[in-house]
Amino acid sequence: MKHFQQFIETFCRISAQEREDLEALFEPVTIKKMDHVFTAGDSIRDLIYFDEGICRVYLIKDGEEFTTKFLTGPSIYAELFSIRNNTPTLINIQSINVTCYYRASFAKVEKMMQDSANLRKLFLKLYEHIYILGTKRQISFIKDSQTERYFKLLTEQPELLQTVPLQFIASFLGMKPETLSRIRKKMK
């Protein structure tokens, strides 16, 4: 968890002891390129911290995959619909490259939060951050053209365009691969 402390401190300061206690809840997992962290139908109970690598989050409808987000290390993810409703997830998370992540029981993390105002503040800030990112994406799909969405991705997360297959980028941007190819060709 070499980036964990720096990641946490972008949101909130916690004591060294709180960080160590939190880190102790996580167990490491390394997966190969194109392996899954989890797939639709799994019951999710863990909070996941991505330290290194890139993963895509996607849904499948009528056999077609729709990429909804990319998770790049360092970042944190909780499939709250499955956790809170105690139901299988509809979401898939797949690695784009070799990915190192850590998982911790969501229930154990929540129990630890009950005893620490700093950890409650940390997770509130994390939830706010995730909410803001989701809202920005929704607004972009309503307000921005496909070309504008591509340009934002190009300027805000250029590393994705170097690593992620174009069909996943196109899906994430809400377009077909052919449309993305035309946009890229025009921008050259």
From TrEMBL:
Among PROSITE patterns, the record links this protein to: CNMP_BINDING_3
Residue ranges of every copy of the Cyclic nucleotide-binding domain listed in the record: 10-130
- Reading the lineage from the top rank, the first entry is Bacteria
UniProt name for this protein: Cyclic nucleotide-binding domain-containing protein
- This chain's source organism reads Flavobacterium aurantiibacter
